[in-house]
Design brief:
The two termini are 38 Å apart. The chain is 39% helix and 22% strand. It is of the alpha/beta class and 556 residues long.
């Protein structure tokens, strides 16, 4: 059973029977080896194919990868608990060492991958002296997952003049048949469609790379380099229950030939946070009135800054039950996710935008200014609003200052195509926080002026403001509006009423209208809640977003 599952043998026919009965047997086994492995791996309860594939298998396998496999055999044959625990502890330590070696080699290999225009070569071939040949298959698998390309990872032996390593592939590229077309490049070669091992002379490495890239270009299309997830169906959050998941689990054991079903769910998470010691995983909490579902996305922590609050997520994953301290919680192990709608990221007034703004290297961002700003956070290129043309497209748009008129912003949004808007502006001197004079304020001031005959703006404005509980700027504003409407004369700071003013509405003053407009801009774009701001942008973004033909892609 361990060999069948860990070596990815198709779970069909007698293999499926052996795996199923074997899992029952190992879950209740009293063998010292099994009990010792349970202890070092902290396994409780029944084991399933995931326990074998991700916990038991890798540990037994690590011994043979780093040294002789004898300790694993000794463990399985052990008849004494104390001896079994000592060997299991040793094997567990070797596995931890294996993980560190894999991580170090994978990092080096990733840095060696040639990437142009955001994409790697059609077939990845990397080689270096000093790499441990026993773990190169795992490294190759990591490269395939990261770059969606067939990958060959080789360890160089300068003394022998040879390179030895492993290969892993994507579904569309048959490693065995393609490598057999260039079998003359190898000293030794063996494998199957998705995995292979090989040895070749050092002077053949570059030719091997060129030959395989040519074969891939000849046989594969762009779509072949995208991972495909086969989704069973779309489910609503309210439809997911313990009973439903238990029914799905009756199809176990899952594995090659009988993959665990994937479900699609669209929902806005109540909470998104980073977890793990390295903060490289995401945890979501999806909730409705009747249901709650936890979502775990391993290795997707770099997407945290790319998901806005209240973003409706499409997630694809495996439904399961997380049992902790006797409590059973519904969860989805997320394999892929997408934000289908435009997003708003709120950095208004923030002094830490640089920390919170992460720009993906393969995306085009721009910062737009309405008032002549020339610098933007993270050195994003700045464009002036008046220079934007219809059809200009950006993956992300930073708005770094407020418009002078709301129409300036709505016109900009009607021209641009973007999926992410970042509100990065702040206010130096706020109109909204100043007292806004009502018509009664204007009426009282004019009546006071008629009664007194004159008012010294320089000497008496502060006194009047203190007495009435006004702001001095309000006194000055009322005076300037009256002056523009020809209600008063102002000379050397002395205000006197016009003897025969014509009747005019306050809104006939351009100064009054500007102040009114600025007040509306600040109220709508700066002092609003996130929900209010998102709702305002929705009016224009959703209309624009629907006009843009959606490209079907995986992930964000």
């Amino acid at each position: 059973m361990i060999g069948t599952i860990a070596d990815l043998v198709p779970l069909k026919g007698e293999n499926r029977v052996l795996a199923s009965i074997g899992l029952q047997a190992i879950s209740h086994s009293s063998r010292p080896a099994i009990q010792a492995l349970r202890k070092v791996c902290s396994i409780e309860g029944d084991m399933n194919e995931e326990t074998i594939g991700f916990t038991i298998g890798p540990r037994l396998n690590a011994v043979g990868r780093l040294q002789d496999a004898t300790p694993a055999v000794d463990l399985l044959l052990s008849e004494h608990s104390e001896e079994a625990e000592q060997i299991a502890t040793f094997i567990n330590q070797l596995n931890q060492e294996r993980q560190k070696i894999v991580a170090a080699i994978a990092k080096e290999a990733e840095e060696m991958v040639s990437v142009e225009n955001g994409e790697a070569e059609n077939v990845i071939v990397v080689a270096k002296e000093g790499w441990n040949p026993g773990v190169l298959g795992i490294v190759a698998s990591k490269l395939v997952r990261q770059f969606d390309r067939p990958a060959i990872v080789l360890a160089i032996d300068e003394e022998k003049g040879e390179a030895k390593g492993s290969a892993r592939s994507i579904d569309a590229f048959d490693l065995f048949s393609n490598c057999m077309e260039i079998r003359h490049r190898f000293i030794h070669f063996g494998g199957h469609a998705q995995a292979a091992g090989m040895t070749l002379a050092l002077d053949q490495i570059d030719d091997l790379r060129s030959d395989l890239i040519s074969l891939a270009e000849e046989k594969l299309s762009d779509d072949d380099y995208q991972q495909v997830l086969d989704i069973e169906t779309t489910v609503e959050l309210e439809d997911i229950s313990l009973k439903q998941i238990e029914e799905v689990d009756q199809l176990r054991p899952f594995g090659m030939g009988n993959p665990k079903p994937l479900f699609h769910l669209k929902h806005t998470p109540k909470e998104v946070r980073l977890i793990g010691s390295k903060k490289n995983h995401l945890k979501f909490q999806f909730q409705s009135q009747q249901s709650r579902l936890d979502g775990i996305a391993f290795g997707m922590g770099d997407l945290y800054q790319q998901i806005s609050p209240q973003a409706a997520l499409d997630v694809v994953g495996e439904l399961g039950i997380n049992e902790w301290n006797g409590r059973k919680n519904l969860q989805v192990m997320i394999k892929d996710l997408r934000v289908s709608e435009w997003q708003l990221f709120d950095h208004r007034g923030s002094k830490h935008i640089e920390k919170n703004l992460i720009i993906p290297p393969d995306q085009k961002y721009a910062a737009v200014s309405f008032q002549g700003e020339e610098q933007a956070p993270c050195d994003v290129p700045v464009i002036q609003a008046e220079t934007v043309e219809h059809g200009d497209s950006y993956d992300g748009l930073l708005i770094i200052d407020l418009p002078k008129r709301m129409s300036d912003l709505t016109e900009l949004l009607s021209k641009l195509e973007t999926r992410k808007v970042f509100a990065c502006y702040h206010i130096q001197e706020s109109t909204f926080l100043k007292t806004w004079p009502s018509r009664d304020h204007f009426k009282w001031f004019y009546g006071m002026l008629l009664k007194r005959g004159r008012f010294n703006l320089h000497e008496e404005a502060d006194l009047l403001a203190n007495r009435k509980g006004w702001d001095k700027s309000m006194v000055e504003f009322i005076s300037e509006v009256f002056f523009e409407l020809d209600f008063v004369k102002i000379k050397d700071g002395i205000i006197t009423a016009e003897s025969e003013p014509s009747q005019k509405d306050l809104r006939e003053s351009s100064l009054y209208r500007q102040r009114e407009e600025q007040l509306q801009i600040e109220r709508t774009l700066y002092y609003s809640t996130y929900k209010e701001l998102k709702s305002w942008f929705d009016q224009y973004m959703n209309q624009r977003f629907k006009q843009v033909k959606e490209e079907v892609t995986n992930g964000l």
